[in-house]
Amino acid sequence: MALSRETMLARMLASDATCDGRFITGVLSTGIYCLPSCRARKPRPENVRFFDGPADARAAGLRPCKRCRPDDFYAGRDDGEVLIERLAERVRRQPGTFRDVGALAAAAEVSARKLHELFRHHYHTTPAEFLARSRVAAAHGALLGETRSIAEIAFEVGFESLSAFGENFRRHSAMTAQAYRRLGDPDGFELTLPDDYPLTSVLRYLGRDPHSLSECVRGHRYRVALRLRTLTVTAHLQFLPGRVRCRLEAARPPGPADLLEVHGRLLKLLGLQHSPRHFEAQLSGDPALADLLTGQRGLRMLLVPDLWDALVWAIAGQQVTVTFACTLRRRLTERWGERQPSGLYAPPAPQALARLEGADLLPLGFTRARADYLLVAARAVTDNSLPLEDLAVRSATRIERTLRAVRGIGPWSSHYLMMRGYGLLDCVPLGDTGLLEGLRRFFALTERPSRAETLRLMDRFSPYRSLATFHLWHRQGLNA
Question: To which CATH superfamily is domain 304-418 assigned?
């Protein structure tokens, strides 16, 4: 335990999950020991003793908490995580077999309330939203890979009417099912933009590095090089009133799998994966928080479309400004990226960096530590000990645990990637200077909040703390 007693008390009171595994909280008055993140009623400080791990707590005569289950955590067991991941896999595979949320709860053998709690904690969403997204995702694959009618596909994936299918499909795809089926049209396709879409802010973000080699903004036109699983494409986007026209340029015509992937990448890039309406409704109902929306309604969580590239951003951006992180990424791209016929470069693949040594990155401006972290991550992705793409369908808890097992990926980097790469809605990049300064200004604090105070303040925005982070960044003009 390298932390002081005062620090551990503060983090226990804040239920800081990032400290799970660093120490154990023992409550002498009840004879129970807990994880720092335990949400049970907090004990009086004089009744608390801290331990290195469960064995030390048991040796002191304490027994494990039945709520946070510290022994399961240290043994790598999480019954709730296992249960909900298995259910999620079944839903993705056969969404049409589940009529509604009640059917999900019955399949999991838990109450509807418990199911909601599990989905919120492990997937940062609700059971109903997860089911709807899974149905639409199944329809995506069927529409591009089969010739059956749209009605047949809609009913097979679980929608009870064509109107419900159409509404959900447009909401999660930014286009109609008929238009989606024509994704491979040589003339391109169009995505529908919401009425409150903050185009000016989006274009400012997309052009945050005016010297970028992999993307380019010119007025209302945008180009970006995207490395897919089997193909690299340049997407040409033209923003028009209420819509964006997309045209793809590649060495060969994209196949169904490529089109499925590029559509998903563009939704992430443009912030069309998640609507902010529930977040805005929650803040509008709280006078103390509603001002965060002033001048920022419609703001969306814009993601890095490539998970490996998002991890590069996370490592390059550790304890540096956004401008310098852009410089590091640009130098990497210029040296090891893949030039496209369009003139843009696809960012370097992990395989290209895995072959390097730390000394190769020092002339680019990387510190020895940051160079080492990047190469460790590249090798982990290359040998699949860090399966970034596979993790996209796993729980947030598993994603964070897997990321944190890689040297150089700490609480900030893992939550940054979970937000910016995986699009998870309830993350807090602890230690982020932009977030700390944003909280100081918004809540009129005399100084930047401590770690425990950051968690306490951000809890007010749960379960949309990722969106709150974006708003706090945006208020300061940060395009992180």
Answer: Hypothetical protein; domain 2 (1.10.340.30)
343-359 mean pLDDT = 95
Confidence at 145, pLDDT banded by 50, 70, 90: confident
Res. 182: pLDDT tops 90: yes
**Average per-residue pLDDT for the chain:** 93
**In CATH, what number does 274-303+423-480 get?**
1.10.1670.40
User: Looking at this protein, which amino acid is placed at residue 175?
Assistant: M
Instruction: Give the separation between CA 432 and CA 99, rounded to whole angstroms.
Output: 42
Contact 378, 350 (CB under 8 A): yes
Neighbours of 47 (CB within 10 A): 11
DSSP 405: T
For 412-464, the DSSP string reads: HHHHHHHHHTT--SS---TT-HHHHHHHHHHTT-SS---HHHHHHHHGGGTT-
Fold of 5-74: DNA Methylphosphotriester Repair Domain (3.40.10)
CA quadruple 434, 435, 440, 443: dihedral sign: positive
Task: Give the integer Cα–Cα distance in Å for 322 and 302.
Answer: 15
**Strands 32-34 and 63-64: what pairing?**
parallel
DSSP character string of 26-47: EETTTTEEE-TT--SPPPPGGG
Q: Which CATH number fits domain 78-181: 3.30.70.3270, 3.90.25.10, 1.10.10.60, 3.30.750.24?
A: 1.10.10.60
Supply the pLDDT for residue 334. Answer: 96
